[in-house]
Amino acid sequence: MSFRMQTLNEEEEYSWTQNDRRTGRDIMIAVDHGPKSKHAFDWTLLHFSCPGDTLHLVHSVSSLKNNIVYEASQALMDKLSVQALKVSGVKIVTRIVEGDAGKAICKEAEKVKPIAVVMGTRGRSLMQSVLQGSVSEYCFHNCKAAPVVIVPGIGGCEAVVLVIDGGCEAIEC
């Protein structure tokens, strides 16, 4: 194997640094009370967000008139907001929306126009998803922002499924 090194003049050197990530991005995370949603939230804080970003936490409920459901949802949003501020120093915007989860997430994504919509999935088989429906699958096909679906893996690993300009890419740990 041969290796050839090129020397660049000072004017030709790269001007970027390792921490030269653009800040001020909007990232939307669909959350619920389940462990897969929490895993996707944690993954976003550790691997995707950076200081200066704004995380838009969206939680869909069937009815905003049910006080018990609304208070539980508000407690979830408060808990996640505090964690996000402590872990990664991002700005947080929370939204509790009424309606079918998949449609509500896509509708909020149209309003926010985030760089990505991150969500977890239960890891059901294709047949189960078709028969029972899947919020992440609905968003995967209908969301105009790029959905990032965190799929549960084996042994603590996760596979990340990205949709970029209509194409699909799977990244495994």
Main traits of this protein?
173 residues, alpha/beta, seven-stranded mixed β-sheet, 5 helices, 36% helix, globular, Rossmann-like_a/b/a_fold, UspA domain-containing protein, UspA
Quick structural overview:
This protein is an alpha/beta fold and 173 residues long. Helices cover 36% and strands 26% of the residues.
Explain what you see.
The chain is of the alpha/beta class and 173 residues long. Helix content is 36%, strand content 26%. It contains 5 helices and 7 strands; from the N terminus they run βαβαβαβααβββ. The chain has helices spanning 35-48, 67-88, 101-112, 126-132, 135-142; strands spanning 26-30, 54-61, 91-98, 116-120, 147-152, 158-164, 167-172. Strands 3-2-1-4-5-6-7 form a 7-stranded mixed β-sheet, with helices on both faces. Helix 2 (67-88) links the parallel strand 2 (54-61) and strand 3 (91-98). Helix 3 (101-112) runs parallel beside helix 5 (135-142). The chain is globular and about 35 Å long. It starts with 25 loop residues before the first strand and ends with a strand. The model is unreliable at 12-16, 126-132 and 164-170 (pLDDT under 50). This is UspA domain-containing protein. It holds the Pfam family Usp.
